[in-house]
Request: fold
Amino acid sequence: MPTVLITGASRGLGREFARQFAAQNWRVIATCRNPAAADLEGEVHALDVTDDHCVRSLADTLVGEPIDLLLNNAGVYGPRDSDFGRIDYDAWDEVLRINAMAPIRVAEAFAGHVLRSELKQMVFISSVMGSIAQTSVGNGFIYRSSKACLNMAVNILANQLRPNGATCVLFHPGWVRTDMGGPSAAIDPTVSVGGMMNVIKRLKPEDSGRFINYDGFDFPW
Ligand code: NDP
Reply:
């Protein structure tokens, strides 16, 4: 039975990933900031992805256990009115910590668990808003730059871990009806996660470094 560890599993896409992987008989290690408040079944651990001590201590708790798929999903949008001329630098700092630095922190802590597994996969939930090629508007300063930073970091990571047989990819999940995506978003979490799981099922080491839409098409950087 393969194992997946999911960050930000308390709601939205993370919770749907936990549900769908469990339904496909994976061992699901769900993590979130406040397990007591989350509507999650099975194996749940407290994990704030920005807290170095918390990340390392969970990696220690799970030492020796292979993790086939490390799913870096946790993320925030940040303040929606913080654009050029009125940038909230503290908020930018916090969003960079959560969206760009934390997924790499988690990857560093769990690389050993992933590399001892059979599948050796790391998936990072990015966004089309992190694509420089697709950005022709002057808003979303904080969120867009955080996801662009994540894209570059994962590109480097994919190159670094390729010789170890690891597959690291980024996804745009679509515009999804979650707390972040809002009620007018285009698709349900079931469709987004179902699409990404179809792609994940077919991932091969040569896919490492791809930036993929939830339906399997590649995104321009
Ligand atoms: P939600 O706002 O519904 O959920 C965000 C999740 O991230 C929550 O579980 C939240 O936990 C968790 N989280 C936030 N900060 C931390 C932290 N410091 N440590 C641990 N967990 C944290 O968003 P979505 O489900 O929509 O987003 C999931 C991912 O998909 C994000 O990376 C997002 O950027 C990306 N995405 C989403 C899109 C959409 O349309 N929905 C579009 C493109 C990308 P808590 O409950 O504790 O707050």
In short: The chain has a mean pLDDT of 97.
